[in-house]
Amino acid sequence: MDSAFNTVGFEMTNSPSSCTTIKPPAATSASPQGISDRGAIVGSTYVRWKAANFNFLFANSKYGVISLPNAPGAQVFGINPQGTAVVGTYDALSGLTGFIYQNRVLQSLSFPGSITTEVYGMNALGQVVGYFLDSSLQTHGFLWTPW
Length: 147
Description:
By secondary structure, the chain is an all-beta fold. It folds into two domains: 1-36 and 44-67, no CATH class; 69-147, no CATH class.
């Protein structure tokens, strides 16, 4: 996230007159990325005084930090409909690698032969979508099914 911009997200419900700003406390910027069926919102935020990016969960009018073990520089891009798993990308030694984080388990997803894999969404069946960059720097979309 670019720290030069002071961006915030918002949630509109039922009518344009009902608008909630999505920006965790102390955050300089916030980028909501995904929403579950129950309204849990995930995304990333930048906190200037810490000079750091964080992933957040906004549910029931409360914010929480999403910490992903063994996933340096992780960015959360989506949440499954049930609100039990998040997806995104992190900086692995081999390049950007996609992930699914569910039940406190981080599962890396790296398309074979790719130099970058990013995961953006996950449906109720556990299928994920994203894109990968091959060694010729060509971009390809993918659908991964866990069985």
